[in-house]
Amino acid sequence: MSLSGSPSSAASIDSDDSVPEVSVMTEKCAICGNRAFCYNYGVLTCNACKMFFRRVEVDKITYTCKFWNTCSDGLDGISAEKRCKACRFQRCLNAGMRYIAPGKPRLELKNRKDDGVHSLIGQLLYNDSRRRYKVLHLFTTEDPTLKEMIERSRDSRMVVKTTQLKTLPDIHEYSFFGIYTSIEHFLSLDFMYSLDTADKFVLLQHFAMKSMLLASALRTKCEGRDTIVTPNGDNVYPDSLYAKFSPDFLHRIRSLLVSRLTELRIRNEEHVLLNVILFCNPALCALSETARSSVAAQQKVYSSVLLQYCLLTYQQNGPSRFTDLLSLYDVINANFVDVHHLLVLFQFYMPDFKFKKVFADVMKN
Q: Sign of the C-alpha dihedral, residues 220, 222, 223, 225?
């Protein structure tokens, strides 16, 4: 895989045009969804959210969410009826709002390039929070092909999980929905709208499963576990599977990527950037020349943003941190190879099992 944003080629964002301006919601407050008319602290917000954010920063107020900072995940705005102050403030930070006290040096945002970095990362964090919300709380009973998901409208086809769906683990359904939400996540990226269906298919077929594995491993790491389980805490593999396959092999699938993420202590900001960088793979031979050029440009932008983030966060250790993060691609690939081998063996033991169509499409990669 080619990554053009290496330390030697993208030590910083060279111009203000390198990072695209990102608007979270046109003429709507990025925090609550009400009407907004101007940018405040770097983000398009209404006056109420601007004053809320300023008051928390100036008065050094600390709020605690009794729902573990998840009460606003996946929502387009925090309504007046359900407004947790802790999550409202976290939403401000995720959207990119930064308060600089008058008369004090700008330690975090040194120039407009840094503003662009924070804005772009904030947008990715917001989109990923919606994906996480869907995985935890929603589901779908449809069975589309990958091509159908690409060509149809973006209207939601999900429903709230029932108690039965929450308590009956199924490795195939769990994997299918993780892939399904990852595909929706990538299709929402702005540059994807300019690509042909065939090129979108190539990109998604190559990385949708790998993205699901990465997201599952990160969720597991954040929960303080060392092996992947379903979102409700159940073992992803039923006992019958352990009777047919090596327990060590199944354990490796569930723990390999988690172990490396834990070792690196990867942050959410690093995850969302790395996810898009690895998705934008111009080395895929099936891509058209036009798509390859577009994808390479996007990969360079996101690679530069990740490097800039590493330099701002880790200072002199930034370049080595950047390299460590990119090395995760090899671990993700090794994890995918194990999953693919498991699928081949599973089909041998259960040849009549019917896989979800989109799951079968991405596993043909």
A: positive
Spatial distance between the Cα atoms of 196 and 87, rounded to a whole number of angstroms: 38
Q: Which two tokens stand for residue 181?
A: 């939400």
CA 238, distance to chain mean position in Å, is 28
Q: Do residues 194 and 152 make contact, with C-beta atoms less than 8 angstroms apart?
A: no
Question: Is 203 in contact with 182 (CB distance < 8 Å)?
Answer: no
Please say whether the beta carbons of 364 and 344 come within 8 A. Answer: no
Alpha helices in the chain (DSSP H): 47-59, 85-95, 112-137, 146-151, 163-167, 171-187, 197-222, 239-244, 247-264, 268-279, 289-314, 318-326, 328-349, 357-363
Burial class (CB in 10 A: 0-12, 13-18, 19+), 19: buried
Phi-psi region of 343 (alpha: psi -120 to 50; beta: other; left: phi over 0): alpha
CATH node for 16-23+109-363 = 1.10.565.10
Tell me the C-alpha distance between 96 and 115, whole Å: 8
Nearest Cα to 13, choosing from 365, 327, 312?
312
Antiparallel, parallel or unpaired: β 138-139 and 159-160: antiparallel
Q: Is the entire prediction scored with pTM above 0.90? A: no
Contacts for 201 with CB less than 8 Å, ≥ 6 apart: 146, 147, 150
User: Cα separation of 316 and 310, whole Å?
Assistant: 9
- What are the average pLDDT values for consecutive 10-residue runs of the chain, which has 365 residues? 45 37 53 80 83 88 75 55 77 80 50 68 89 87 94 78 56 88 94 95 97 95 89 79 88 95 94 97 96 95 92 90 97 96 88 91 86
